[in-house]
């Protein structure tokens, strides 16, 4: 005669706890893989960024270019150069707006090409402000954000 043993309440709770711990361990392992992928993407981006920065430093001077990495390393980076005086004055006179930031960054962007830059701006819209801040720093702003001209 086969008898089916019913689990006690304690055994059910223990089984559920084991199940939850295994699920958490699987999530943690997956998260570690994501972190490794992000670290690899950062290293690859940084290597390419260093290469391009060296190239544009040779062309414009090492204190006249700056790399602006994206928050998501898979999205890449932007390299900007110091603004010409008329470009910077126009920016100062136009007030703090997205259009004025675009008019500052556009002539100062040296990498990437426009299509890739537009893709970055679509994925990370705040990169425009980061780029404008970098251009302002290259133009001599010592503290604060571009908006604090």
How would you describe the overall organization of this protein?
This protein has helices at 9-60, 85-94, 98-105, 114-123, 127-138, and strands at 65-69, 77-81, 109-111. The protein has 149 residues and is mainly α. It has one domain (9-148): rbstp2171 (2-Layer Sandwich). Helix 2 (85-94) packs antiparallel against helix 3 and helix 3 (98-105) packs across helix 5 (127-138). The longest helix has 52 residues, at 9-60. Residues 145-149 have low confidence and may be disordered.
CATH-wise, what's the superfamily? rbstp2171
- Hey, roughly how much beta strand do the residues contain? 5-15%
Low-confidence stretches: 145-149
CATH class descriptor: Alpha Beta
* End-to-end gap: 88 Å
Major sheet size, sense and barrel closure? 3 strands, antiparallel
Return Rg in Å. 25 Å
Number of helical runs?
5
Q: Give me the secondary-structure category.
A: mainly alpha
Question: Main sheet: which strands, in order across?
Answer: 1-2-3
Net shape:
elongated
Q: Helicity range of the residues?
A: 55-70%
Task: Return the CATH topology.
Answer: rbstp2171
Tally of individual domains? 1
* Residue-averaged pLDDT: 88
Total strands: the figure is: 3
């Amino acid at each position: 005669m086969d008898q089916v043993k019913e689990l006690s309440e304690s055994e059910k709770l223990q089984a559920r706890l084991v199940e939850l711990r295994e699920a958490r361990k699987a999530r943690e392992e997956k998260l570690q893989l994501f972190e490794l992928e992000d670290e690899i993407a950062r290293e690859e981006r940084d290597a390419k960024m260093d290469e391009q920065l060296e190239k544009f430093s040779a062309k414009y001077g090492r204190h006249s270019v700056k790399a602006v990495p994206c928050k998501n390393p898979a999205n890449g980076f932007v390299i900007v150069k110091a603004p010409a005086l008329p470009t910077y004055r126009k920016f100062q006179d136009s007030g703090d707006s997205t259009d004025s930031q675009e008019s500052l960054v556009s002539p100062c962007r040296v990498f990437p090409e426009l299509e890739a830059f537009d893709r970055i701006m679509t994925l990370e819209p705040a990169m425009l402000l980061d780029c404008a801040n970098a251009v302002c720093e290259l133009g001599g702003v010592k503290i604060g954000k571009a908006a604090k001209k």
